[in-house]
Design brief:
- Strands 2-3-4 form a three-stranded antiparallel β-sheet. It has a two-stranded antiparallel sheet with strand order 1-5.
- It is built from five helices and five strands; from the N terminus they run αααββββααβ.
- The longest helix is centred in the N-terminal third of the chain and has 21 residues.
- It is α+β, with helices and mostly antiparallel strands.
- The termini are far apart.
Length: about 150
């Protein structure tokens, strides 16, 4: 309620009242500084921007139809124009896009990042670097394909 208080009548003409108003503003700013984190505010803004983008799912139904046949040499790429963010916390890697979040073990975060950063390049599951075996890479690309992050077409 302190932030909704109105200014006192006559403060503009009374120097003592102006000083009280300034002191009140300073107190409110100190309160805000103590309660807000620039890092958290930025993270929230990034999450909001990545979540409000409209999904561009052209060909997604065809991708879903071909999903069971996606193998180690199937050409894939991220959908163009995706806004995404990869976060790591509590042993979980979270890929945020299209107002959704896909979770992976933190141990595959670098593989997920590599895939996400190849927006303009086609790749296969076998070209993903890292420690995942072939079955793990196929699971990774099939998951991202099913969620609409990757495309075959």
């Amino acid at each position: 309620m302190r932030f909704r208080r109105s200014l006192p009548v006559g403060f503009a003409l009374d120097p003592a009242m102006r000083e009280q108003v300034e002191a009140g503003f300073a107190e409110l700013l100190d309160t805000l500084r103590a309660q807000l984190s620039p890092r958290e505010m930025t993270a929230c803004a990034v999450e909001r921007v990545t979540s409000i983008s409209a999904p561009l799912l052209r060909g997604h139904l065809l991708d879903l139809e071909d999903l069971p046949h996606t193998g180690p040499e199937t050409p894939l790429r991220p959908r163009q124009g995706l806004r995404w963010q990869l976060t790591l916390a509590d042993g979980v890697a979270r890929l945020h896009f299209h107002n959704k979040t896909v979770q992976f073990p933190a141990s595959v975060a670098e593989e997920v990042r590599w895939v996400a950063e190849h927006e303009t390049q086609w790749f296969t599951a076998n070209t993903i670097p890292g420690d995942l075996d072939e079955a793990g890479r196929i699971t990774l690309v099939r998951t991202l394909l099913a969620e609409g992050f990757l495309t075959l077409h």
